[in-house]
Amino acid sequence: MAPLEARHTHEEFAYTPLQDTMANVLFDGNWAIMEAVREKDTKRAAAIVGWTLAAVKGFGVKLTNPGGTEAWGWGKNVSSITDVVPYFEVTPGEIIDTMIRATEMLALPHSVHIHCNNLGLPGNYRTTLDTFDLVPDLNRKRQTLYATHVQFHAYGGTSWSDFCSKAEEITRAVNEKPQIVIDMGQVMFGKTTTMTADGPMEFNLYRLHHNKWSNHDVELETGSGIIPVLYRRKNLVNSIMWAIGLELALLTKNPWQCLLTTDNPNGAPFVRYPEIIGLLMSRKYREAEFATIHPDTEHRVSLPSIERELDWQEIAVMTRAGQARALGIVDIGKGRLAPGAEADIAIYPLKIGEVDPGREYERVIEGFRQTEYTIKRGRIVSRRGECLVWGNNTTIWVKPKISERYDMAQDPAFVEKFDRYYTVRMRNYPVQEEYLKRNLCIETETEL
Prior knowledge:
Keywords: Oxidoreductase. The protein is α/β, with parallel strands linked by helices and 448 residues long. The chain has helices at 6-14, 31-38, 42-56, 68-72, 92-105, 125-132, 167-176, 199-209, 236-251, 273-281, 283-290, 312-327, 361-368, 412-421, and strands at residues 24-26, 60-64, 112-115, 145-147, 155-156, 164-165, 180-183, 190-196, 214-218, 222-231, 258-259, 345-347, 373-376, 379-383, 386-387, 395-401, 439-445.
């Protein structure tokens, strides 16, 4: 969520029934943050983050191509975590390190949530590994860094002609670093739409596909782009991408460290989750699908040699409990079944002891397509696809407790620059709670 456009995001949330919502706030090209990074003032960066989250009713910190989105405003990009962002004299690595430490200062429920630099480019796995090397182990309750849609960041090769998987190298690093959690970003074949704050990446995609492309800049904060794509089964690059996502999940030893996603809708719409679950639980299904993709894929990936089949418990972690722990919302009753939990439950028409997912993957896929019952806060809200209850969702947001000394609304330099450069007045920037029909505010004790 771009802070300046948060009001519209909350309006969208308000028209989404039942589904609880939260928004990670984009700080990847935030001018005030980059100035604090340049001055090596982590406390000031934390104060800016805390004020912004409370003002726009955000949940956590999102970095998308850190530094690159600002460079894109000048028609440029960054190609490594040591490149210098134009006009700010900071590097993506410095932004990432400062924001990790600022997030911990604020005791936010969720860690920094990062879309690494160089998404979608051959050889980008090196940038991903360099980013992972920055991450200290700072939190006992959760990860210190959440790296999203890592399939798009696990590419080897020097060009599209020798493009290959580097999932083994990525998962080796993840397996050695409990402070890092990743998600798959699984690609599935067919049409979808990509939308992201990574403006330069979307322009690169436009040059590859020549589909309609939209580009957007959010003043002083971030940017975005959107373009439709078609992932083709017989396209070698697309086939390798499909295999990489599965490799990440199957080669990560701890299911709590690799969560199931499609980066909806960028890799595929979320309605493809049942098929992905089937692929992870059945080697037989993977072999059947592999036989239909580009024949040269087997020389570029390790998927055919992976025997592992995930079990029901691992799928439950990767689709539910793992997300709750990674987001830091277990303490408010999410992602667990225990006294005091919220009783958000999905019941599927599958009996574990009667289905062998390795052989009967069709039953697994069909069983996960629709719940028998969906229970929200202990109340049945749908049965066999029929919605029984329409009600408000809950928007979860964070308000760090910050001393008056670090209150950015009272900081003369911050207020002066805000009034000079923004097209809105500071008093009109915050989102009023009236935009949140039902909300849950998590207050955190900070070091400020």
